[in-house]
Design brief:
The chain contains 19 helices and two strands. It is an all-alpha fold. It is globular and about 70 Å long. It starts with 14 loop residues before the first helix and ends in a 9-residue tail after the last strand.
């Protein structure tokens, strides 16, 4: 008979190995594209939950897109606003007016805006998009500081879907007709939704030229599934055609510049750039309020220039970094020119925040790409900066709920097609509903 001391050992002889295997399984699960997309979608919903559980129209959602859908019908699709076409808001407004009761229009508008943003996450997670550090790049789309005005609303949807154009630059060739048609449909829809096709066209043209130089056959000579440069040629042609359409409307109605009559103010511009691009994302809004304008400029602008300069150094990811840096410069310069950011109050972080949404994310991406730099000091400094930015802005992650204007109680005039003024978001805005035009019969 065995005593207690003689019984065989039943404990795992290698608990460290089991822990290692568990960690590997968890890391494998977290790195799967579907998990990343779901996680980013949940974070997006948590950041602005009231846009989904208490949906309301936002700014031009009602005053422009709802009104003009009622007034013009299908002609609204070719009616420019701010000098260019807005295909996706027009499509969403048209679908809402032809599918559900007016009570549900804000819910449909915001649901489509949410779904389109999640589609950007899904595109980034696609195996065809060849980018490193995808989990962190995807989280940056949600976690980077911002006022929230661009999140989950149709009016500012263009600032999110523009990333489809950027991601297409790093997307491998299609392997089927369905993939190719899907790529071209996305490019066309996004390019006709805002002015971004004009900014991205040089990158698509360069990619098509590079792919043409890489092989010795004409771009359309091979079959549809075998030519590696057919996709870049078709993509460039699609973006070029849409850019020409947008350029036509821009030329017909030049974009009005904010405060165009005021002289250029370089010190204020540098302070605005420092606050919007560095101080707020890394140190939080309280640091912006506490920092004098000269300090924001002195801290922010050199750090931005340093990060952009590092994209020039020889590196296996040099082409990727140069592309991100060039897109950052183009969009930032266009936004500064369009919005006259040199006339802003440097401490005001809410006004015009949409103009710096894409540049902030691109800087975050460049910072994330430095996590695996050859220099150990650079690796840990950039990782620490990203962690600091998340922690500093964590108290402001969930955006406070605005007033509930009880859309369902006040939207009946739209249902009946009679004029009315209806309060909507942001606070202080309203829809001056003009009524449905009376149809005349010959």
């Amino acid at each position: 008979m065995k005593t207690r001391d003689q019984r065989p050992e039943t404990r795992d002889p290698n608990p460290a190995g089991l822990r290692s295997q568990t960690f590997i399984r968890c890391r494998s699960l977290v790195s799967r594209p579907w998990f990343l997309v779901v996680a980013a979608a949940v974070l997006l919903a948590l950041r602005k939950p009231w846009a989904l559980h208490t949906p309301q129209l936002w700014a031009e959602d009602g005053e422009i897109f709802l009104n003009q859908d009622d007034q013009f019908g299908l002609r609204a699709f070719v009616t420019p606003y701010n000098g260019y076409l807005h295909f996706l808001p027009r499509l969403i407004a048209w679908l809402a007016s032809h599918t559900v009761d007016v009570t549900w229009w804000p819910a449909l508008y915001n649901s489509f805006a949410f779904a389109a943003t999640v589609a950007v996450f899904a595109r980034l997670g696609s195996p065809r998009v060849e980018l490193p550090a995808k989990p962190w790049l995807m989280l940056a789309l949600v976690l980077v500081a911002g006022s929230g005005e661009v999140l989950i609303n149709v009016t500012n949807l263009q600032w999110h879907v523009a990333f489809f154009l950027l991601l297409q630059l790093f997307t491998t060739r299609a392997t089927s007709i369905a993939q190719r048609l899907g790529d071209l449909a996305i490019l066309a829809a996004v390019s006709l939704n805002g002015p971004f096709a004009l900014l991205f066209l040089p990158f698509f043209a360069w990619r098509a030229w590079r792919d043409r130089r890489s092989t010795g056959v004409p771009p359309l000579s091979s079959d549809l599934n075998g030519n590696p440069k057919l996709d870049s040629t078709l993509a460039a042609a699609t973006v070029a055609a849409c850019a020409a359409v947008q350029a036509f409307f821009v030329a017909q109605a030049p974009l009005p510049l904010t405060d165009a009559g005021r002289p250029f103010d370089l010190p204020t511009l540098l302070a605005v750039l420092g606050n919007r691009l560095v101080v707020w994302p890394l140190l939080g809004p309280d640091a912006v309020a506490a920092s004098p304008a000269w300090l924001s400029a002195a801290l922010g602008v050199p750090l931005v220039l340093l990060l952009l300069a590092r994209a020039l150094r020889p590196n296996p990811q040099r082409e990727l970094r140069l592309t991100l840096a060039a897109v950052f410069l183009l969009i930032t310069c266009a936004s500064i020119y369009r919005a006259r950011a040199d006339t802003w109050n440097p401490a005001d972080m809410s006004s015009g925040d949409r103009y710096f949404h894409i540049p902030r994310i691109l800087l975050a991406w460049l910072l994330i790409l430095e996590w695996h730099a050859a220099s150990r000091a650079v690796r840990w400094i950039t990782r620490g900066a990203c962690a600091l930015g998340v922690l500093a802005n964590l108290p402001h992650f969930m955006l406070p709920a605005p007033p509930d204007y009880r859309w369902a109680d006040h939207c009946d005039p739209i249902r009946r097609g009679v004029p009315a003024n209806i309060n909507t978001l942001p606070e202080g805005y309203w829809i001056e509903y003009r009524g449905r035009p009376t149809k005349t019969h010959p």
